[in-house]
Amino acid sequence: MTKQRTPIIDNHGRPLTYVRLAVTDRCNLRCFYCMPAEGIDYLPKKQLLTYEEMERMLQVLASLGISKVRITGGEPFLRKDLIYFLQQVKAIPGIEEIHITTNGVLTEPYIEDLVKLGIKSVNLSLDTLDRERFFKITRRDEFEKVMQTYYALLDSQIPVKINAVVMENQNIADIVPLAALTKDYPVSVRFIEEMPFNGEGQHYPVLTWNYRKIIQELQTAFPDLYKVSDDLHSTANHYAIPGYKGNIGVIAAFSRTFCGTCNRIRVTAQGGLKTCLYGNDVLNVKDILRSGTSNATLIEELLRTFNSRAKNGYEAEAQRPSLLSIFESMSSIGG
């Protein structure tokens, strides 16, 4: 299959070059902002995409100009033979970058493999540097394993981004200590507005800790904080502190300020295609793949879907049959 050099352009003039692929809906943590304490109803394995189906789908997407893949979950390292699958993805013509998002609990033994694979970066979910708060947020006592993974990733020289969801009455005291990690290490610490994808819905009537308040908190602690340039399709506004080795990002995930340059699509572990995080699945890739249809037919369906993409997260949310359906788990959506 020949890679199309020019990426697909959606109906709002945005190129599509990036897919976030969830390889599992399972997770070994129970984070406050992601799912209820009792967890979610995981799907039987046969209802999830197989590696072979994922590989075929990525081959088709690569032919349409998708060049960047982020592997997510759930927790991706819970899926058996993940390294084998990553090797298959790396071999797909047109796929130029592979990134991984992980909670770090199971990741450390695989870091050498990730280096050999040339993984472009690892996003490590870490909302606090305090063990007790970690347990309160994740409902699991795995802080030490996550920190071991963090330092092992730094030693491996794989670029590391820390994803920290900012939650009122949960981890506000961690904003400054997390930002301070950028002093001695070339790490990017990204603070993310909390979203309602936790299986319960929005935790607060109003999102007090929005991106503006997060930036204000950082400026108070670090008066010399200054704005640095962002990549064209970046979801984060980036900042730095003079003399520090890393940088700080603030992601307006709930305020949705970056929709105008969004270049990403999502595929859930069940094979649901999302062209917006806040929208419903707009195509069932799994059903198409299992129907015995040709790649040409799949491409037709994909192009049709990309040509009817919501303008932004608010429009995508409004198009849902019921606003109640937004109360799903990020573990099911794909982190």
Automatic annotation (TrEMBL):
Domain Radical SAM core span(s) in chain numbering: 11-224
GO biological process: Mo-molybdopterin cofactor biosynthetic process
Pfam families recorded: Mob_synth_C, Radical_SAM
Coiled coil: none
Keyword Hydrolase attached: no
A single GO molecular function term of this UniProt record: cyclic pyranopterin monophosphate synthase activity
Enzyme Commission number(s) of this protein: 4.1.99.22
Cofactor: [4Fe-4S] cluster
Catalytic EC class: lyase
UniProt cross-references to InterPro entries, sorted A to Z: Aldolase_TIM (IPR013785), Elp3/MiaA/NifB-like_rSAM (IPR006638), MoaA (IPR013483), MoaA-like (IPR040064), MoaA_NifB_PqqE_Fe-S-bd_CS (IPR000385), MoaA_twitch (IPR010505), MoCo_biosynth_MoaA/MoaC (IPR050105), rSAM (IPR007197)
Gene3D superfamilies cross-referenced by the UniProt entry: Aldolase class I
Reaction equations catalysed: GTP + AH2 + S-adenosyl-L-methionine = (8S)-3',8-cyclo-7,8-dihydroguanosine 5'-triphosphate + 5'-deoxyadenosine + L-methionine + A + H(+)
SUPFAM superfamilies for this protein: Radical SAM enzymes
Keywords, in A-Z order: 4Fe-4S, GTP-binding, Iron, Iron-sulfur, Lyase, Metal-binding, Molybdenum cofactor biosynthesis, Nucleotide-binding, S-adenosyl-L-methionine
Protein name (record): GTP 3',8-cyclase
Gene name, Swiss-Prot/TrEMBL: moaA
